[in-house]
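Same chain as my last thread, 71 residues:
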Amino acid sequence: MSLFDAVRDHVVEHHDGMLFDLAFAFAWVIVVTLLFETFGAPQLVYYGALALGVVAYYGFVFSLQHAKESQ
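reply #2:
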């Protein structure tokens, strides 16, 4: 199996999840950028808020899975 085949199989198998991940990342970066450009916060705080997107993503996904399981 070539690398191309492996990547294609992975994308086909995880298509919906990858689109959700990409949409969340774009939304997080856009919201954080708009907020920090509006209020003029220091650059270090901006980068910290971008990094907190990782924590926010896993928290959101965990709570979404928990809500689906409890139904």
